[in-house]
Design a protein that fits this description.
Blueprint (H helix, E strand, L loop, with lengths): L2 H10 L12 H11 L4 E7 L8 E7 L9 E5 L8 E3 L8 H4 L9
Antiparallel strand pairs: 1-2, 2-3, 3-4
């Protein structure tokens, strides 16, 4: 009998706030593992200029050879992970092309 007034008090005590879905960290990690060679070691949500501005994330990678400055991801729709895009392109080093080409020795 006592539970009913407590329940009513809890329900009427505040104005219900609408739940807002947003892109989660694990979704960004999954995007990076599926579409890039970055193994995420740290993920940071960058501050937005305005509430309607896209979400921006910065990820540090385990192997900095392809992404020495990390990877930046932007999500145009804050509620839909399908709107997220990788903004940073992987660096491709042409180290083997720098070596002088010599003919193979004949044995």
């Amino acid at each position: 009998m006592r539970a009913i007034p407590i329940l009513a008090l809890c329900l009427l005590s505040g104005v219900p706030q609408q739940a807002q879905a947003s892109v989660q960290d694990y979704q960004i990690r999954r995007l990076l593992s599926d579409r890039s060679d970055c193994r995420v070691t740290a993920l940071t949500l960058l501050p937005a200029e305005a509430k309607s501005a896209p979400l921006r994330y910065h990820a540090e990678c385990e192997n900095p050879a392809l992404y020495p400055d990390g990877v930046e991801v932007a999500c145009a729709d804050r509620e839909d992970e399908r709107s997220c895009r990788i903004l940073t392109e992987a660096k491709r080093f042409r180290a083997p092309n720098l070596l002088p080409s010599q003919p193979a020795p004949e044995w």
